[in-house]
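Hi X.,

You mentioned you wanted examples for the new student's onboarding notes, showing what a folding record looks like when two proteins sit in one file. Here is a clean example. The first protein comes first, with its sequence line followed by its structure tokens.
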Amino acid sequence: MDDPGLDPATYAAVLKDLARVNRWTFAARPTLSFLARAMRGRTKLRLLDVGFGQGDMLRAVARWARKRGIEAHLVGVDLNPMSEAIARAATDPALGIDYRTGDYADLLGDGYDVIISSLVAHHMSEPQLAAFLRAMEQHSRVGWLVNDLHRHRLAYALFPVLTTMLRAHPIVRHDGLVSIARSFRPAEWRAKLDTAGLSCSPVRIVRTFPFRLCVERLR
């Protein structure tokens, strides 16, 4: 799905099915749990989501904030220029989500309470991931969260069963297995935090069912 030559209609179908898989695997749950802790005593949230895809995580955050009376300014940025139109089409304008195309580094000067990502970290090279971790640490006022996969044999075995049951697009089936294989285990995340110079920061590595491995920082 990262192929820049992918047909836009195919890319839209892939993102739609990936969002369905995310719902079935409770992908938003660790992010919303993190935000519940981050927002204690706060009524306003300015959040940046890096690599928003179809926008399903931002929509979940928007609904979560609305139910709790939190004034949320939500910004998503994605490198793929096709993502913005697809996410906008799938999103109720009343949610007020600001989708943008480009590099997250160009938006950091805007100032955010929280910076999040989902299923993005394992796509980054080692230098890119180290820079991303440092950028979130430097530019988030309240905290940051990396919501990613946990590399696990059982996850690799069960993912084809789930995607077959959901009749997911073949690219989702293929890329999902590749993502599981490229994702990390807790000890590997500790090494990556060391590389980024964050080993002394109060960063938590949290396992969440099913097969999510999150890295979080609250100030």
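Then the second protein repeats the pattern, sequence line and then tokens:
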Amino acid sequence: MKLTLHIAALVFGLLASPAMAQMPMRPPPFMGGVPGMAQMQSIVMQRHQARTLLYREALEELKKNPAAADVKECPAGDPTPEEVCIRVLKKADPTPSTQPVAVSKQKSAALPAAEKIPAASVPVPGGEKILPPPVVTRKLAVLFGNNAYPNPIPPLETPIFDVQDIGRILQERFGYEVRIVRDAKKADLVSALNQIGSETRPGDSVLVFYAGHGYLMDDTKMGYWIPVDGSVKSPANWVSNSDISKFMKNIQAKQVILISDSCFSGSLTREEKVSVSSKSVDRDWILNKRSVLAMSSGGEEPVSDEGKEGHSIFAWALISALKSTGLLTPGVQIFQGVKNDVVKDYPQEPQYGAVLSAGHMEGGEYLFEMPAQ
């Protein structure tokens, strides 16, 4: 244990020197096993201080100009893949928070063969209509895994492996159409999120997952994703969680969840907490609401040394939770299993909350539903 602490202190001391500030600051793996919780907390604090030192120039710019990382709104029309801007919903686009769940007349390719699309609403005596139960017409998951960071930002070991395994489970167990973006630059992130916003409809279910470097500012509690073209000198290529909220708002699906294995324990997951309920899940009632949820690892980056089976500790817990679900599982129950696994081994606390700024409706929840056999 003492040797581990000495190594961590030495790493931080080296980083504090001007000559070493530009070198990768990834600590070596733990020697002699994983230390106890108190020692882990000390190491986590030292790592945060080291990151603050590493990003000091970019952070100074953010303090002077909090909008330095903001993504501008796109001009009229849909953006091209090369444009780094946030797509603006057109007036003709459906509004996710007010439109009923779409009922398609044709079966989506993502639907299992046994699942039937109900007919249109049927009139009954007295002029009332019985609405068909809502269905999820398409499940789409977009996963970002960032390993290859340029010096002096240290490379990561687990994100691509994490998204590959999580994507496989989402596809095979839950029937998602899965897209994986490896080593995403800021333009890649923006383009992929704009594309989701342009092609999804209220009857869809969308999951976005990010694993990569990030930073949480101590004073403002604003979280940032740091793409692989991010810089320690300028935040211009960072992505703030306020912009992520805008992208989530533009996703027109009724069911939306963001899962971040990076610093995202700032404003979004605190907008409204979601607690575990002993009540049975009313699927139809939930699917007729706009639900936008965010789950965060509670840490600043995926950490492989404290992880399991080659995954970050958070990704390993998420994979375990997804493998053990029932036919219909609300996101808060997935989160509770993840949190329990993480906090017993590591001093970070995952977060889960409703994103009101992206249109979440009271009582909404994200549903992980296995297709009918």
